[in-house]
Amino acid sequence: MENKKRALVCGAGGFIGSHLVRRLKNEEYWVRGVDLKNPDFSPTEADEFILGDLRDQAVCRNVLNQPFDEVYQLAADMGGAGYIFTGDHDADVMHNSATINLNIVDLALKQKVGKIFYSSSACMYPAYNQEDPNNPNCAESSAYPAAPDSEYGWEKLFSERLYLSYFRNYGLQVRIARFHNIFGPLGTWKGGKEKAPAALCRKIAEAEDGGEIEIWGDGEQTRSFLYIDECLEGVRRLMDSDFIGPVNIGSDEMVTINELALMIMDSAGKKLTIKHISGPLGVRGRNSDNTLIKEKLNWAPSEPLKAGINKTYEWIREQVNAS
Prior knowledge:
The chain is α/β, with parallel strands linked by helices. The chain has two domains: 6-182 and 226-249, NAD(P)-binding Rossmann-like Domain (Rossmann fold, 3-Layer(aba) Sandwich); 184-224 and 254-287 and 304-322, UDP-galactose 4-epimerase, domain 1, CATH 3.90.25. Helices cover 39% and strands 16% of the residues. It has ten helices and 13 strands. A seven-stranded parallel sheet has the order 3-2-1-4-5-6-11, with helices on both faces. Helix 6 (196-206) packs across helix 8 (257-268) and helix 6 crosses helix 10 (305-322). The longest helix is centred in the N-terminal third of the chain and has 21 residues, at 90-110.
């Protein structure tokens, strides 16, 4: 263990965090994970897993009690559109996530960690640049004047500035990425916090061939979705680079939600009718601009969306059948 790099993954019980722990273990890191809960769908592969609330400074001191080579701060209060855009959870989202980041960044400095990664979100981009579903502007330089479409996005923007201020004032080696709709197996697929790919996979898996599914809005809102393996590749390349960020980590293959539903139906081998209903939507259009990541990391996600959808649908179909 003495010769291994040591990593701390905050939010290791979540979807991206649990996959990241596995990736780091495959790269022969010694990994400590921390979260309020264990991973939902598979045992953790962390060498050490601490159940704890990172809003609590005492828990944070226990978790960050040594100079880790790398810290990955993924812990946040978050969910899909049905959680973020109703307005019912705004206070919790802002308070919980901001408290975690304030705790972790200060201890990372005090413990002299090598590098700390912060997972921001495309939700921090201005809503006014995302009104045209065919031409959204999510270049990193478009972040200001700031006008996120949710309190979740405002907290992400605040925390980006928090980490960058620790870099400027104290030299803390931070790395910041803005995630664009990460999806894949072992993620939340029911209960209200699931995101669009998982929700549609579930609805289509549950529907009888020839039946009907519901989609919020007219389904012409656009998004891009990034498979988990490519997300982790981007994170690790960013951490190994000298680039601080923020940088988009997302796919630039933009689809409408209707097109996404049809793609999943194809994976399922089903023909279904789409019924459009009212519901929380977020911005009209969003897509990852990958110009900067190509320039700085000489890499960008390239796997076709359909390949990730095939794998994700199969896993969610198995969950539906088992439930």
